[in-house]
Amino acid sequence: MRSSSYATMLASLIAALIVASADAQQKYPTPRTGAACDRNCLDKLVDSYLAALVAHDPTKVRIAANARFVENVTPMKPGEGLWKTASAVPTTFKIYVPDPVSQQIGFLGVMEESGKPAEVAVRLRVENGEIVEIEHLVARGLGDRNLRNLQAPRAAFLTAVPAAQRNTRDEMLKIGGSYYDALDDSDGNLAPFGKDCEREENGLITAGPGLAPASPESVDVEGHSPPPLARDCFGQMSSRRFAYIDKIENRRVFAVDPVQGLAMGLSHFRQSMKLGPQLLIAADGSHVMWQEKRDPYDLPAAHIFKITGGEIHEVEALGIFVPYASPTGWE
Prior knowledge:
By secondary structure, the chain is of the alpha+beta class. It has 2 domains: 28-148, Nuclear Transport Factor 2, Chain: A, CATH 3.10.450; 160-319, Nuclear Transport Factor 2, Chain: A (Roll), CATH 3.10.450.50. It is 22% helix and 35% strand. The strands form 3 sheets. Strands 1, 2, 3, 4, 5, 6 and 7 form a 7-stranded mixed beta sheet that branches. A 6-stranded mixed beta sheet has the order 9-8-15-14-11-10. Strand 8 (193-201) and strand 9 (204-207) form a beta hairpin.
């Protein structure tokens, strides 16, 4: 009788453990504690994270007790910031950049915040099965012009690269980093831009092979407009259009996926607007000294580069304006 009672208790205990394990797997679908997260695991992790974000419940994903979280350059705690305001997960515009080597994933997508569209860049770093670093950039106030190109990613960002055209992880890290060098030094020769390279920022096409030379929508200190400048990726950099940038800090290409040919970087642009007149090179080759008239500002930004055959062919970027000399949040 005692043996039968013990067997019944043991069976009940085993059943309870199985149910508890199933509940834990449903609550924390990825990754397993202590296990490295592969590409598929990282993709699922960011999906689970975004679902938890919309549910306003950080306990739905494994976040380390000492995890660092920065949103729009402001240190926060899980449960704050977008955790309070996210109202719908991304549906049609989603780009994933999983990196099993660095155990990080980058994500760029359009979701809803308080019922309105917002473009978000997310970085997650995993260690021993837990998320130990979280980073958000949230671009709000998107208008119709922005949203027109944010309905779905360009096909290249969803297309695997043929094996013969893939670059190694180290090559992609170097190529992604060279983009910031080209910007910082106003020299298109420093990055391997493909002739078909197109850049979109917050949904707006800001560089591409089909764009005619044009003057930026700005004036100098005397109210003059600059001459028409080249607008292809290489020509725009080399025109010195961005010579007003003081420096690009906290730049990191943190995730690369050779299978999809994607590299993702984060950075923090500083613009004091005090560098004085800078040389501009017009599309016709003429030179002019130019000083852009604008209030000082910082621009934290996320970039995803499509790299095939050793060249940058597409750039998807998100940037937000914050006060000049703002901390990055990671000091």
